[in-house]
User: Which sequence fits this backbone?
């Protein structure tokens, strides 16, 4: 029986994690659930899995959640400090980091410092401070098991292999809904168009990141830290069917791939059950009818975010932290129709130019870089 904490239980990854828990009640026991403001769903989940603790980050929902769970014996707290304190202090084997954005960094570090293994969905944590997070994991002998489907694929391909025999990895990308759009067409894309992903149903932020290809850029940085690779060992290939989830090429030229239908419950369950595999009834990929699996080169002219992320990785320091913060602000502004789709990379690049570079940032430096980048990106958006 694994005791688990789910950070961000009400989102796309969080709700699918709860599904896995409900399917295997003999394998997982939920100790703590957190959400930002989805109070009703949080109450319902806490009752369904009988979580010991529940934390709502947005304090204005505290009374509501407390009233909703009155008489259940479930302890209710609120605020991000409570999330950080509880993650560190309660007893658990695994923390599923399913919250979105920079907000995941501190609770993930708290989990690592208190020696809890991580099932990592929140890629922004590694993008912002991959050096500090992986160093903390080494120091405290904590395992970071990827939930992101591409990284889960690579992690699965690496089982039983010597990590030093990896020549390179290839991350697959669906290419998003605008793969075949012209630059001119991209200028007129609306949030409604962008929120319709062809293969995956996900939270709003990552869906926009997929449409700009920033998601793949963030995943390149995530892979660098998870698998300790150089930037030139990480390739991206467009694979519109999303059946091959990623590939590893070894020193003898052999390539291993992991395949399956695009269903996030699979990598979530794998990360939760690791090193075991659990049976399930998820739909299987069938070679009947026979489908074509196709591959294309990514177009960084049309989708500059991928290039921006590679550059941030090469430049190191607080570069990726700046890119991440500016991207979070630009994506939110696009969703609120304050800027156009093609302005997202422009805002990021302009923010990068304006923020002081730090070669060896501390945690405090990352926190300040994040705050400053958000202020700069917001003021750039106001001027557009
Ligand atoms: P989502 O927006 O659906 O859910 C986010 C969750 O985080 C919600 O429970 C929300 O209440 C909580 N949250 C948001 N802001 C918070 C804050 N400030 N403090 C505390 N909690 C907060 O997002 P998602 O699509 O589930 O994605 C979650 C993470 O997983 C992201 O980092 C994303 O990149 C990654 N990921 C998602 C998918 C997917 O299929 N959805 C796939 C791969 C990776
Ligand atoms: Mg992914």
Assistant:
């Amino acid at each position: 029986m694994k005791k688990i904490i789910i950070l961000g239980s009400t989102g796309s990854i969080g709700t699918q994690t709860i599904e896995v828990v409900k399917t295997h009640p003999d394998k997982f026991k939920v100790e703590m659930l957190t959400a930002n403001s989805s109070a009703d769903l949080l109450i319902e989940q806490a009752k369904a899995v009988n979580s010991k603790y529940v934390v709502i980050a947005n304090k204005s929902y505290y009374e509501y959640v407390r009233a909703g769970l009155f008489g259940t014996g479930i302890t209710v707290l609120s605020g991000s400090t409570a999330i950080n304190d509880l993650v560190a202090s309660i007893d658990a084997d695994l923390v599923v980091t399913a919250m979105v954005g920079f907000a995941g960094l501190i609770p993930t570090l708290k989990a690592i410092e208190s020696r809890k293994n991580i099932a990592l969905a929140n890629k922004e944590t590694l993008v912002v401070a991959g050096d500090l997070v992986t160093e903390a994991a080494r120091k405290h002998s904590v395992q970071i098991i990827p939930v992101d489907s591409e990284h889960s694929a690579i992690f699965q391909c690496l089982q039983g292999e010597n990590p030093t025999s990896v020549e390179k990895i290839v991350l697959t990308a669906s290419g998003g809904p605008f793969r075949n759009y012209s630059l001119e067409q991209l200028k007129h894309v609306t949030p409604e168009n962008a929120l319709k992903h062809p293969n995956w149903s996900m939270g709003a932020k990552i869906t926009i990141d997929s449409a700009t290809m920033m998601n793949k850029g963030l995943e390149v940085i995530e892979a660098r830290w998870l698998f300790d690779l150089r930037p030139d060992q990480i390739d991206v290939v467009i694979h519109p069917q999303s059946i091959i989830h990623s590939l590893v090429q070894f020193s003898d030229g052999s390539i291993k791939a992991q395949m399956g239908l695009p269903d996030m419950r699979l990598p979530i369950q794998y990360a939760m059950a690791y090193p075991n595999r659990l049976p399930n009834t998820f739909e299987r990929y069938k070679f009947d009818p026979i489908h074509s699996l196709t591959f294309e080169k990514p177009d960084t002219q049309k989708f500059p975010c991928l290039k921006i992320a590679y550059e941030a990785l090469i430049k190191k320091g607080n570069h990726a932290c700046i890119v991440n913060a500016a991207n979070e602000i630009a994506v939110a502004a696009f969703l609120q129709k304050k800027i156009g789709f093609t302005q997202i990379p422009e805002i990021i690049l302009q923010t990068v130019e304006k923020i002081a570079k730090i070669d060896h940032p501390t945690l405090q430096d990352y926190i300040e870089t994040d705050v400053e980048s958000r202020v700069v990106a917001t003021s750039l958006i106001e001027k557009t």
Observations:
- The pocket of nicotinamide-adenine-dinucleotide (ligand 1) is lined by residues 8-14, 34-36, 38, 57, 80, 98-100, 103, 121-124, 148, 200, 202-203, 205-206, 264 (CB under 6 Å).
- The chain has a mean pLDDT of 97.
- The CA atoms of residues 101 and 328 lie 7 Å apart.
